[in-house]
């Protein structure tokens, strides 16, 4: 799995655990703990896959999702949230997939195929 992955989430433990799993799969992983930093890395790094949390310190992932989708239509965007009721809205707003927290490695691997 040679791909660039950006994880945008303010939960440090989740970033470290998911990042470690993805690195074992040979992914190049970077992190952002808020939307502002996430957008900067998204624009400059052009990741293949973005894991985007919904509730972040400086805003809501679902609110920026359509803009991020327009900016980089080739990047896969995976919305992640503990609120499963956001699934349909996330997919309608441009997410390629929705994963409910807590994440399972099996579900992460499934969306990367």
UniProtKB/TrEMBL annotation:
Report domain Response regulatory positions. Answer: 4-113
Which key words tag this protein in UniProt? Phosphoprotein
**Does the keyword field hold Oxidoreductase?**
no
Q: Superkingdom, according to UniProt? A: Bacteria
GO process terms (BP): phosphorelay signal transduction system
Recorded hits in InterPro entries, A to Z, give: Bact_response_regulator, CheY-like_superfamily, Sig_transdc_resp-reg_receiver
Q: Which residues carry this modification: 4-aspartylphosphate?
A: 53
Asked if the keyword Secreted belongs to this entry, the reply reads no
User: Matching PANTHER family, A to Z?
Assistant: RESPONSE REGULATORY DOMAIN-CONTAINING PROTEIN, STRESS RESPONSE REGULATOR PROTEIN 1
- This chain's protein is named Response regulator receiver domain-containing protein
What organism is recorded for this protein? Siphonobacter aquaeclarae
Lineage, please?
Bacteria, Pseudomonadati, Bacteroidota, Cytophagia, Cytophagales
């Amino acid at each position: 799995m040679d791909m660039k992955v950006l994880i945008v989430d303010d939960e440090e433990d989740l970033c470290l655990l998911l990042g470690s799993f993805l690195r074992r799969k040979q992914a190049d992983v970077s992190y952002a703990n808020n939307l502002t930093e996430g957008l900067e890395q998204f624009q400059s790094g052009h990741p293949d896959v973005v894991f985007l949390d919904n509730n972040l310190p400086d805003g809501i992932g679902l609110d920026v999702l359509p803009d991020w989708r327009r900016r980089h239509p080739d990047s896969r965007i995976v919305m992640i949230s503990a609120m499963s009721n956001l699934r349909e809205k996330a997919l309608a707003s441009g997410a390629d997939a929705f994963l409910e927290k807590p994440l399972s490695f099996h579900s992460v691997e499934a969306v990367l195929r």
